[in-house]
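Researcher: I'd like a structural prediction for the single chain below. Treat it as a standalone chain; there are no partners to consider.
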Amino acid sequence: MKVIKICVIGLGYVGLPLARLFSTKYETIGFDMNQERVDAINSGCDATFEVSDDLLQAALKNGFRCTTSLDDIWDCNFYVVAVPTPVDENNRPDLKPLLGASETVGKVISKGDIVVYESTVYPGVTEEECLPVVEKVSGLKFNVDFFAGYSPERINPGDKEHTVEKIRKVTSGSTPEIADIVDGVYNSVLVNGTHKAPSIKVAEASKIIENSQRDVNIAFMNELAKIFNAMDIDTNDVIAAASSKWNFIKLTPGLVGGHCISVDPYYLIQKAQVYGVLPRVMFAARRLNDGMGDYVATQTIKLMNKKGVMVKDAEILILGITFKENCPDIRNTKIVDIYHTLQEYTNNITVYDPWADAMHVQHEYSLTISSQPYESLHGRFDAVILGVAHKEFKDKDIRALLKDRTAGVVYDVKGVLDRALIDGRL
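Model: Treating it as a single chain, here is the predicted structure.
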């Protein structure tokens, strides 16, 4: 293959870190439809905080750039698609962003070029859904004029330890020769190398079960938390005791949000049913995990009733709205479910999160978050729910937020606060 010039299509939590990494070895250009996002990146700022300003600015100085113009990417020969793969309101796979990106590739791809998909999908999407679109738009024939690969993303938003260059990546290609080329490109920028899968479908399947396994395991812990809470046994104490056995897998209960674990299993659930298989365990896990926000709100209300705190029109504070700690990502956050359940009892609910972008929260959930300083929240609430374990919350006197330090309720979703300061936790 001629000298590789890479274009990464989709510059979100996955695409930008990958494009920046590729730019250390290859001429690389990022493409995104969002002009505001592209302008911010080209100015040296990543609003997701996945790429530090120093790394991004160094990449820009070395020739990396981003664009919204197809004219700027037509001469690339190695296209990487890293766009979202959401579900619709009925939890059915929504392939529109992926098919739209495939149309984009079709408009610029040339003979001999390679397109690699990173977006999480059920087995078969790359070859059965995406590549026919590329063929139709380009007029080229797959595996004759152009080729393909699949390398599932493994980005963990907010994780500064398992950064993109340290992740071991699965790779694959539409022919053995292309698989070697794709594997070589990724291997050249990764510290821990790659695992070359025997086919694109195997690579697709490997990604979908990574997140489905996590979903099922967390669902089991959430079910245990419900059981032990009903028995008045602290779940964290049980987990600590069980963890003393050498082969016990230590996991904790919690809210399952974000773009991966709370979404990806639906892709496999949907496809399995096409083949006549009903994935009962996965489906039950999804239903259980999707109900945990309502459970947290209900538990908080029970604690308020037990302590004689009037629930109707109570002043309640929720700390955190992002789907995980120390990260601005609000995609599929289950904190919103807590909020909506509490709204059945009171409209006096304040949400505070120093990491979340207020405009994005308003746009996505029609919900206003407080812009006041944390200290101004002291002494104002009947109940406080720690929903996200941001570092800014861990060393605070949580009970100082209550109107009555003794009578008020503190519920710790994440199990990170001093037990003496809280009234309940998962």
